[in-house]
Amino acid sequence: MHRRRARRAVTSALTSRGEAAPNGLKWCGRRPLREALDARVWSAGYAFVDGDPDQLLLDDAIGAHLARARDVASAASRLDGCFAAVIDRAQETVLVTDRYGSVPLYFRAPLARPAVASDDPWAVVATLSRPPALDAVAVLDMLRLGYVAGERTLIENVRTMPPASVTRVSDAHVVTEQYWRFSYIDGRDDPAMYEKRLDQCMDALAARIDALCDGQGREAVLMLSGGVDTRAVAALLATRSRSSVRCISYGPADDPDARTGREIADAVGFRFEHAPISVDAFNSQLCEPSSFKAAIREVGITTRFTCGTGARFSSVADDGVVLTGHTGFLSSALHRMNWGVYGKAGARRMTYARHYTYERSEVLVPRSVRVDYDALRYTSLDETLASYDPCVDPLGEMHRWNEEQRQRNLVLMEYRAYEQRAPWMMPLGAHDVVDLFLTLPYALRLDQRLYKQMVQQMCTGRAEPLAHISRVGGRLSADNRVYRRYRTIDRLQPASGAVLTRALPLAKRYGQRQRHTPPLRYGPNPLRHWFLTDGQFRTDVLDRVEAISVDVLRPEAIRAALLDGRSGEWVFQLLLAGALTVQGVADEATRVWQRER
Question: Could you read off the pLDDT of 118-171 as tens digits, one per residue?
């Protein structure tokens, strides 16, 4: 109760100032800037000061806290949570993001005073001096990655703030300071020490969940897929938390992920709901203008519209807190193709092979765009690898790239759909948990060895049945042989890196030849499955492709790729979904801009 009163006291001290810009900021956010001391502030999200459950800050209280700090970067680094903040003073404007950039801030580039910024990208689009144009590099990203890497968006001159950063904008200069970055280190301490630290982290994490959920009179709503991450959160809630919990899984009626989720919820006595995604529901979302536009507005400017599908079909009330299992931070099971990576060249080659390509993409994507593909092919990758640290393990740099790009720009953007109805929390992104896993020895990191051990140890007493429920794709267990294989290949560096990174595209093509029939397990976005099995869905998709009118895309080439029997799942998930997103974003941006004129 005292936490609630303290938060209200901070919030009541803030008074609305609207969107006027007497200082150096034109703020176009969903909520206005508010007065705090000698500044105008805006902030959104949650944060625990030094991870302390008794020092919870919500929304504008975060901005007020940072405005009082003598050193904003130092104060931001001590805030454990998901947030973004703006502090506007007469002499400068300060834009702050959390460690992972989980709450996006958008701005009009180039950044200068008076700065134009918002938590709504379309509000920034509306302020452009010229009609909005597509960013060619971002379009390629959308077709190859399914999201836009780095700080670009699909619209030229609309950018996002980088993660873990404090950007100061004054009349004289713009300076960005990164107060934290992913840095994986092969630790040398006794494994027992890590196990003890992890147990302490889980106790602290449960207390923070209770502070945000039970302490605020809110229900914990766990989006449960049944994999290692959501199973870990379920075990934590079942054994160490006092919060009321409801679980939601989404997907087709016969989706094995949803079946596993129900088993896990039943095993620990949590309420369970399945949000079914049928062909009719998805077809309606794709083809009804209102639904499609809603999806584009939520996540489309940086990631494809199909991201967050489950959120739109899930019943999340505003009195709940959405808990996610998202954590690439702990996903330390290194792919065998990574083992031979050595130096920046190897990291660049492997990152491109794993993220920027899929079966036949190097043929289909150039045919589908009217841009100089060869000239722009590596632009996005090189931009996002510019801060490569040669003193850090190259495998760690690859993980950092994945977190700062794929996780932030694809997975985290999905939460924009949840955020429309309820606040959300990323439990396994807690600072102490992440910092521990960044320093694990490879013996405990590979195959998620300590992580899986943690889940199994938490599965005692009330959560014990979770240890016996099979994962989709295999049981929850660690394999010591993985570490031995890693050490063997590691001794062959750097020669093994050149061999393995070139072998990956061949392996992808080989795997594609084995998949000529509709997949039996098709997940929450089964575009290819429905395209091949539902005539009406197929017709509607082809009609929408033929209606593509943006100059940068070739609809006839995209149509041919879809009708080609050799096209696999990712052609639909990335090329098709990306092309429809590009067209939808272009239409929405034009509409928003013209409305403002």
Answer: 999 999 999 999 999 999 999 999 999 999 999 999 999 999 999 999 999 999
Torsion of CA 583, 584, 586, 591, to 10 degrees: 140
Query: Token pair of 429, please?
Result: 């992104």
Q: Which two tokens stand for residue 342?
A: 């050595």
* 190 Cβ contact list (under 8 Å, min separation 6): none
Q: What are phi and psi of 433, to 5 degrees?
A: -65, -50
Farthest CA pair distance, the chain: 65
User: By the 8 A CB rule, do 418 and 316 touch?
Assistant: yes
pTM of the full structure:
0.88
Q: Residue ranges of the domains in the chain?
A: 2-178, 191-331+402-470, 527-596
Q: Return the number of other C-beta atoms located less than 10 Å from residue 454's C-beta.
A: 24
Residues composing the chain: 597
Nearest-CA neighbor of 517 among 569, 472, 557?
569
To the question of domain 191-331+402-470 being in CATH 3.30.300.20, the answer is: no
Q: Is the pLDDT at 40 greater than 70, yes or no?
A: yes
Architecture of domain 2-178: 4-Layer Sandwich (3.60)
- The pair phi, psi for residue 38, each rounded to 5°, is -100, 20
CA distances (Å), origin 126, targets 107, 116, 348: 12, 11, 36
Count Cβ neighbours within 10 Å for each residue of 491-517 and write b for 16 or more, e otherwise: eebeebbbebbeebbeebeeebeeeee
Burial 234-263 (b: 16+ CB within 10 A, else e): bbbbbbbbebbbbbbbbbbeebbbbbbbbb
Average pLDDT over residues 548-563: 97
Residues 6+ apart with CB under 8 A from 184: 392, 393, 395, 396, 399, 400, 438
Q: Angle at the Cα of 379 (from 373 to 380), degrees rounded to 5? A: 110
Look over the chain and give the mean of its residue pLDDT values, rounded to a whole number. Answer: 84
CA 225/CA 342 separation, integer angstroms? 34
Report the alpha-carbon distance of residue 477 to residue 475 in Å, rounded: 6
* Residue (of 586, 197, 182) closest to 403 by Cα position: 182
358: its two tokens: 């899929």
The candidate with the shortest Cα–Cα distance to 285, out of 267, 304, 269, is 304
DSSP for 270-328, written as a single string: -EEEEEE--HHHHHHHHHSHHHHHHHHHHHTTTB-TTTTHHHHHS---TTEEEE----S
CA distance linking residue 341 with residue 331, whole number of Å: 18
Q: Pairing state of beta strands 174-178 and 271-276?
A: unpaired
Same fold yes or no, 2-178 and 191-331+402-470: no
pLDDT of 2 = 36
Identify the residue whose tokens are 């997907």: 251
Average pLDDT over residues 389-401: 83
**The residue type at 354:** R
305/301 Cα distance (integer angstroms): 9
